[in-house]
Amino acid sequence: MATLQASSFLSSSCSATSSSSCRRGTIAARINIPKIQKKKISLPILIQRRGISEHEQFSNKTIEELLSPSRILSDTNDSPDLLVIEKLYAIKEAVADRVEMHRNIGEQRSQWNSMLLTSINGITLAAATISGIAASSGAGGDSILGLKMSSTLMYLAATGMLTIINKIQPSQLAEEQRNATRLFQDLHNQIETTLSIGHPSAIDVKEAMDKVLALDKAYPLPLLGVMLEKFPSSVEPAVWWPQEHRRQPKRASDNTENKWNGWNGKLEEEMKEIMGVLGRKDQEEYISLGKKALKLNKLLAMSGPLLTGLAAIGSMFIESSPSHGSNLAAILGIVGGALASVVNTVEHGGQVGMVFEMYRSNAGFFRYMQESIESNLTETEMDRRENGEVFELKLALKLGRSLSDLRNLAASSSLKAEDLDEFGSKLF
């Protein structure tokens, strides 16, 4: 701490000559400050060497290259396009919404089938019972007339309802919606995979849009105007994929091993054999089963309304007095109603329409597999094909086989060809 010492001397008897000096006063001050010791601080000496200067030159050159317009443009091209990603997310949301819609409508139409089946059978059996009571009753006049009218009206109502239900086939409608739900869910998973790995492009957006529109066309939601034909003149496999297959984008091959993109001559021959098996065995088998199911469904669909119509006519001519014509009318009214209930139960309880749609969809699945194999084999540029090893793995999983089992199937087909008894798929 500094010590300030001051001394002021003022004389009371100052002379006139020193009066000015007395007025100013004299202040003597001394400040004592502790001395700061000077210490030397050692700092690292920066020696400019030749290597350091070269590094600085290289760093400056690298920065210039990174900031060059051509480098920025190339980095921009390598980065994912945000607009493409936004479009894929929009399609993904629409697909998720369709999954929920088809699931809800499928459940609704399945309930239609069960409720209409129960209602029509109840009406038909009630009308047959009334016809029997009218035929066995000894009453006449207004009593027998009321029973006859009740039975006839109930049969006519059942005939009209059967005609409608046989036209729309609720069990087949429910199966269509179940297939649509599964396929839209599969498309949703594909879009998620595209967004998770790799850089999505505008081609992926177009492909996803085409698949959505193809599924909308294959499995429409409305009943009027665009409903699928339930009794087609010929059985064709279901088609739910775009018919115009896009070419795969080229993949960069860094070495000779990747040049063939997982394909070789042996794998191509195996794929050709498997494609032949799927066409000769699996697809043809389900087409044949679909034709049988369609014939049975047509027969049942015509028999139900015909039997209830005949039963309505028979119930109109029932008489209380026994006669040959009255007995025949009573038999027609009672037996016709019972047979109509049996036919209706077999058709809609057994869901024959659903079975037909299942066979048609399975045949479509095998056609899709054949077209997928063919589109890869016909592509001459290997780097535009789907990777051969990945494609073989996907095919084996979809057919319910291991890779070795798939190769054994191809070997057996090459040896036996038309005489092969084994089917390509082990799932269905």
Describe the overall structure.
With 428 residues, the chain is mainly alpha-helical. It is 67% helix and 0% strand. It is built from 12 helices and no strands. It has helices at 19-24, 50-66, 69-78, 82-136, 142-168, 170-196, 202-218, 265-316, 324-349, 352-377, 388-398, 403-416. Helix 8 (265-316) runs antiparallel to helix 9 and helix 8 (265-316) packs across helix 12 (403-416). The protein is elongated and about 95 Å long. Mean pLDDT is 81; it is low at 1-63 and 65-76.
Short synopsis of the structure:
The chain has 428 residues and is an all-alpha fold. It is built from twelve helices and no strands.
Keywords:
disordered N terminus, mainly alpha, 428 residues, 0% strand
Low-confidence stretches: 1-63, 65-76
Following the backbone from N to C, one meets helices and strands in this order, namely HHHHHHHHHHHH
| Overall pLDDT score | 81
Q: What's the number of helices?
A: 12
- Largest sheet, described in full? none
Q: Can you give the helix content as a percent range?
A: 55-70%
Dominant shape:
elongated
Topology record:
Blueprint: H1 19-24, H2 50-66, H3 69-78, H4 82-136, H5 142-168, H6 170-196, H7 202-218, H8 265-316, H9 324-349, H10 352-377, H11 388-398, H12 403-416
Helix pairs in contact: 4-5, 4-6, 4-7, 4-9, 5-8, 6-7, 6-10, 8-9, 8-10, 8-12
